[in-house]
Design goal:
alpha+beta; Deoxyribonuclease I, Chain A; Immunoglobulin-like; 2 domains; 10 helices; 16% helix; disordered N terminus; disordered C terminus; IPPc; Inositol polyphosphate-related phosphatase domain-containing protein; phosphatidylinositol-3,4,5-trisphosphate 5-phosphatase activity
Length: 469
């Protein structure tokens, strides 16, 4: 492992290649130990850091999963999703998808500009634990195409306790081998071009006594503990683990703390500190990985894909000690994704026509620019700028109902004035594909004028939601 806690960005290396595109990925893994969210998550998401990330992937473990609470979360968004979504949406990030299995929750957010290029989204889960009972351990995953590059994120919660290192390895391998997707070219996790596996992997620091552990941590000599870290040692023995990379553990072990403090466990159990919360990544190799591979950057050389490489560089791997609601501290991993886009044109072009206001019916145009499995159940939503997800529309219209359109055919649809917001504001139109479950095209933002009816009736913003529902 390297002794540097930050890795250099590849932006400087590749800016001379106009085909290359740089995106920033911000990942969080946190065992929240059934706690409610903190007052804010601004520092956790590095919202004050520029340039802002392009993608956020947040994996939580032990979200409150009591049966009645879990059932209520199926009807109403859970408090953690609500916190992250409400924090990110005003900053231009849209929730692409989420998946939950009991206490495991995985959230994916993207800048609005990227939405038409995130396609073929699928989620799934795998139960482990006691015969998979009640989903107490296992993994939830999301896979998608990002500008044509197939990426998979796997949020895991593996077996606990010091003596179960081998069981953790078995569970990890079981997840990788059995979790599958309904996509012919990438049915399994390791078929994907890039895989991020992260979560409460529960690996411990073996052999060392509590006093040595704490003195090494207090003096910042974390490297003294690496040789006894179970995951580092298991990687030396297990070929499938050797396919995964991990940054240096140059931060305090994130487990186990007294809640609302920076003090390691003072209870009667006095659990030993450990790096239970980890972020690993894997690039699909063309050939088995060799010992000479560069430690700091990985390049995908998937068969037949040499013209479209993707480079993954870790820029940060750390924890945030400021959060105390759980007995774990959250872990943050930031990456640069250097990739050449397979495409840079949306599948659908959509735009408003003329002036929009609730005083008259409006018009919109859309054009299918690339063949896909379109449906007469597809729809075009009207979204207020700062919308939270594809379902967060103000109103919508169905696409042309009688027949599917030809490629590049210009289609015009009328929008009833009664579904246009009375007070107006900044909006975008989005084409949603029912089959692909994603927004395939977004218009430029446009202004809807305040209607004369709103002026005549003296409406104020507080009234508008009630009138629109």
């Amino acid at each position: 492992m390297s002794s540097d806690d930050e890795r250099p960005s590849l932006n400087v290396i590749l800016t001379s290649n106009s085909c290359q595109h740089s995106d920033r990925l911000h990942m969080v893994t946190w065992n929240v130990a059934t706690a409610e969210p903190p007052e804010d998550v601004i520092s956790l998401l590095h919202l004050d850091v520029q340039p802002a990330p392009d993608l956020y992937v947040i994996g939580l473990q032990e979200v409150n999963a009591a049966p009645m609470r879990y059932l209520s979360d199926l009807l109403v968004e859970d408090s953690w999703s609500h916190m992250f979504t409400n924090t990110l949406a005003p900053r231009g990030f849209v929730k692409v998808t989420s998946v939950r299995m009991q206490g495991l929750l995985l959230l994916l957010y993207a800048k609005q500009v990227h939405l038409p290029y995130i396609r073929n989204i699928q989620t799934t889960y795998t139960r482990t634990g006691i015969f998979g009972y009640w989903g107490n351990k296992g993994a939830v995953s999301v896979r998608f195409s990002f500008y044509g590059h197939i990426i998979c994120f796997v949020n895991c919660h593996l077996a606990a306790h010091m003596n179960y290192a081998l069981q953790r390895v078995d569970e990890f391998e079981y997840i990788l081998e059995t979790q599958d997707f309904d996509i012919s070219d990438t049915p399994h996790i390791r078929d994907h071009k890039v895989v991020f596996c992260f979560g409460d992997l529960n690996f411990r620091i073996a052999d060392h006594g509590l006093h040595f552990l704490r003195s090494s941590i207090n003096s910042g000599r974390y490297n003294l503990l690496w040789t006894k870290d179970q995951l580092i040692n298991m990687k030396k023995k297990e070929p499938f683990l050797q396919e995964f990379e991990e940054g240096p553990l140059n931060f305090k072990p994130t487990y186990k703390f007294d809640r609302n403090s920076d003090t390691y466990d003072t209870s009667g159990k006095k659990r030993k500190p450990a790096w239970t919360d980890r972020v690993l990544w894997r690039i699909k190799p063309k050939n088995p990985p060799s010992a000479e591979e560069d430690e700091k950057a990985s390049v995908s050389t998937d068969d037949g894909q040499e013209d479209y490489p993707i480079l993954v560089t870790q820029d940060k791997y750390t924890s945030d000690m400021s959060y105390g609601v759980s007995d774990h501290k959250p872990v943050i991993a930031a990456f640069s994704l250097e990739l050449r886009k397979y495409f840079d044109t949306p599948m659908v072009h959509v735009s408003p026509v003329g002036v929009w206001s609730a005083d008259q019916d409006a018009l919109l145009n859309y054009t299918i620019q690339e063949d896909f499995m379109s449906s007469t159940w597809d729809w075009i939503g009207l979204y207020k700028v700062g919308f939270k997800s594809a379902a967060d529309y103000e109103s919508f219209v169905w696409v042309r109902e009688k027949e599917l359109p030809e490629i590049n055919e210009l289609i015009q649809i009328s929008v009833d004035k009664n579904v246009i917001p009375l007070l107006g504001g900044q909006y975008v139109l989005g084409y949603y594909s029912t089959n692909l479950q994603s927004l395939l095209g977004l218009s430029e933002s446009f202004n809807i004028l305040e209607s004369t009816r709103a002026v005549m009736e003296g409406l104020v913003p507080e009234n508008i939601n009630g009138l629109n529902k």
